[in-house]
Design brief:
The structure is a homodimer of 343-residue chains.
Chain A: E1 3-6, E2 13-16, H1 29-32, E3 56-59, E4 70-76, E5 90-93, E6 96-100, E7 103-109, H2 123-141, E8 148-155, E9 167-173, H3 178-194, H4 198-209, E10 213-216, E11 220-223, E12 234-238, H5 253-271, E13 276-281, E14 296-301, H6 308-313, E15 316-318, H7 322-342
Antiparallel strand pairs in A: 1-2, 1-6, 3-4, 4-7, 5-6, 7-9, 8-9, 8-13, 10-11, 11-12, 12-14, 13-14
Helix pairs in contact in A: 2-5, 5-7
């Protein structure tokens, strides 16, 4: 069973998961060399037996679970830092505290096509990916042992993608992680002082200012935030106030999918397919966050290395103004629109 | 002038520093290829004119500033995210807030030898490096415009070292960054509830438990912390309670240098010279933190990639138990001692 350990000084929890059973010397230079492409990809159709049984799939009528015929397939992650069980046990070692790491890790295989990078997927497929996010989010939301569901996508090895086949990931965990504690504190502070949702204000201000806007449709705003941490950091935010990804309405799904697709294509086009991470920020599952929290997607291209300054201080240095990042991405969006209408 | 920008939601500050004047398209694939080794290193003796004038050097009697003859040389960083000026100006854009990024960035060239990696430096040189940390720390401490001094070392390109020649870095800034806000909150909470210094308690507990210890001498304890964020994360902590690096006594310098050297050699030996970041955590310069804070050095080898989960949640997953990391490093330390006594 993987464990959570609490740092006595800051109270922060770390997951210690040794499932992969790597010996310490496996971290020496030779083992750090790039892993060659695998002959057999466990995420490709026909290889369904290489993964644990599926928990969800969208597949052609008449096809069998854990066989081919799917276009989205969700399976438990073989190497799980969080694992479902009825109740967690605490272990104390003097002042130190350790706890069973309860939760679930899932892989959302986002296309049957091994070589279909996310930016190249068609609109309908992106809508199906969004649907799989919703279905799995809601499934875990119903489990009272869980406090948070994080859904994310790692693209490219420098961004931490260990398998080439396009896949999203879901982590359902039994605590509220630091990023959301900080956001909630800020949002509650703002609501108490100024009234209203600080996210709504920020997103509206970004639309009004315009200089950092990348794209918008009826449902979503895409922009490089005012205090972006990295070059080309981009947020995709729903215009309707809603605390949780689980609140997404069926009618909003197409707009969300379009916003993701337009953003990823602009990035891939303009920067020659850079590695990136995106992650959905949604309200914690328990407690009343409806009024103050506002879900959104944050995307961070992996173009620089967080080094001693960032790791040591928790502060970021961004070498490109978000206004310049946004102008560059806007140009890509406009070029794509022109190309499309020319066809 | 570089800028600080405040995120409206969390209140966190980001430095926006476009000094290097990179155009957005310089981030596309071609530009991301590894930079070839430079023919001419600005940190090598004889090339002193390639850097701004030195602010400190330890050099042979009779040699001239900004000429050869030094063994440690400190110069302002050409690409500074923080710059000294008498007073910062705030610029408001609606609700958004921007401020001049006041401070100093310095490069502490840690050896005249381009190819002398830090783990290979001799003890006397490491003591001189520590002395340069102290001298520059104290110089900035005296400036009332500054709130924090961060000193760090990046080793290897994957850990963000952009030049091969061994060098430490110093950032003196006008705010207290998030890592220290979190540590101070935790430490004050502990002092109020339990009394005493939570760092002293933790370090004593680690010595008593033993399983995560790597090395100790009269002045310093080296261990992999109970809630280590990454494989082989290692802390070097002074046994005498002291809030600030600036409190280091002359008699403690040799022990600190030995602890650094033993740790870096164990890491280099055991894992075939892995990239790493280390950074010194010291109390903020202003305010009374004497009783609750305890300075120390944190070292994080760069062996894995912080991906969507870590970036999105602020939470870490560690795939090696700190007990196993420590046992492995202890073996390296013991082997080095044996080898040394056999010679």
């Amino acid at each position: 069973m993987p464990q959570l350990r609490q740092d006595l000084i800051t109270g922060r929890w770390v997951a210690v998961a040794t499932e992969r059973a790597r010996r310490p010397d496996s971290f020496s230079q030779a083992a750090r060399e790039p892993v060659p492409a695998r002959d057999v990809c466990p995420f490709c159709p026909g290889h369904e037996q290489m993964t644990p049984p599926e928990v969800l799939s969208y597949r052609a009528p008449g096809t069998e679970p854990d066989g081919p015929g799917w276009w989205v397939r969700v399976v438990p992650n073989l190497y799980a830092a969080f694992r479902l069980q009825p109740e967690g046990q605490d272990v104390r070692e003097g002042r130190f505290l350790q706890r069973d790491s309860i939760g679930a890790c899932e892989v959302l295989i986002s296309s049957p096509d091994h070589r279909a990078a996310f930016p190249q997927l068609d609109r309908h497929q992106v809508e199906e990916i969004v649907q799989s996010y919703l279905d799995r989010f809601r499934a875990h939301q119903a489990n009272p042992a869980l406090e948070y569901v994080s859904i994310l996508y790692n693209h490219g090895r420098p961004a931490g993608a260990s398998l080439e086949h396009p896949h999203s990931q879901l982590y359902a965990i039994s605590l509220v992680p630091p990023s959301f504690v900080a956001e909630l504190e800020g949002a509650r502070g703002y609501a108490a002082k100024e009234g209203g949702c600080v996210f709504c204000r920020t997103f509206d201000d970004e639309r009004r200012a315009g200089a950092r806007m990348v794209f918008e449709n009826e449902g979503f705003t895409v922009f490089c935030p005012y205090a972006a941490r990295t070059p080309f950091e981009t947020w995709i935010a729903p215009r309707r106030h809603a605390a949780s990804l689980g609140d997404l309405l069926p009618a909003e799904k197409a707009d969300f999918a379009q916003a993701i697709q337009v953003t990823l294509r602009a990035l891939a086009q303009g920067l020659n397919d850079p590695p990136f991470n995106y992650f959905i920020h949604s309200a914690p599952l328990r407690g009343d966050h409806e009024a103050v929290y506002h879900w959104h997607l944050e995307l961070i291209p992996k173009l620089s290395t967080a080094a001693g300054f960032e790791l040591g201080t928790g502060m970021w240095i961004n070498v490109v103004k978000p206004e310049d990042s946004a102008a560059f991405l806007r140009e890509q969006v406009e070029a794509a629109v022109k190309e499309h209408s020319a066809v």
